[in-house]
Amino acid sequence: MSQHARLLREVPIFGAIREDIIDFLLQKGREHQVRQGDWVLREGDAGGSMFVIDHGEVAVLKSHEGRQYLLNTLRDGDCIGEMALFDLMPRSASVLALSRVTLLEIDGSALHELYKRDIEQFALIQMNMGREVTRRLRECEAHIFRKLDYPEFDPGPDSSDPLTETNLEWPGRLPLHP
User: Fold this and answer.
1) Which of 66, 48, 161, 62 is nearest to 106 (CA)?
2) Which of 1, 99, 129, 131 is the most exposed place for a label (fewest CB within 10 A)?
3) Residue 84: pLDDT band by 50, 70, 90 thresholds?
4) DSSP label at residue 1
5) What CA–CA distances, in Å, run from 176 to 86, 159, 163, 164?
C-alpha cells in the first residue's frame, strides 16, 4: 500500500472506502508542494477540488471587514476544501501554508467519475463528508457558545418541567402540535 493510500485510509471522509476505490481516487489525484507563506486556497474562489494534508501545517482564515481571523490550524491527515465540493459554493475561507506543505488533491471530476462507476462508494464518501462538516459545525457551535454570553432559560415559577408545550409557546410562535 502506497504512502498516499495509507494517508487516505486515515482520513474520516474516506473511512470504509474499498481499496480499489482509494486506488482509483489516487490515480486521478495530484500531489502539490506549497511553500511556507503561500496561499493554498482563497476565500470566494471557485472550489472544484479538496485537499488532504500529507505533511505540514496550514491556517484556515476568514475575512471580515478587511481583516483576517484565524478559524483553525490544520495538520497532517486533515482535509481542506471539501465544503466547496459538498455544497458547490465558493470557498468559505482562505488557507495559508504555515510551513512547507505537501497536499494530495482530489478533484471533483474524480468524484463525479466515481458516482458513475460505483454509486454506493460515492454515497459513502458523501455521507462521510456530511459527518465531517457536521462535526466541524458542532465544534464551531460549542466555541461560539463558550464565547458568547447566552441568557439562562427560565421557565418561570409555574412549571416543574421547563420543556412542556405550554412553556414553549409565546406570542408569535406556532404551537408545537397543530
Assistant:
1) 48
2) 1
3) confident
4) -
5) 32, 18, 11, 10
Distance of CA 80 to the CA centre of its chain: 7
CB 52 within 8 A of CB 106: yes
Q: Count of alpha carbons within 13 Å of 105, Cβ hemisphere only?
A: 13
- Residue of 21, 11, 53 lying closest to 121 (CA atoms): 21
Grid coordinates representing 28 are 486521478
Cell 463525479 found at: 112
Domains of the chain: 3-147 (2.60.120.10)
Do residues 41 and 94 touch, judged by C-beta distance below 8 A?
Answer: yes
Confidence (pLDDT) at 176: 52
List Cβ neighbours of 139 (8 Å cut-off, separation of 6 or more): none
Phi-psi region of 103 (alpha: psi -120 to 50; beta: other; left: phi over 0): beta
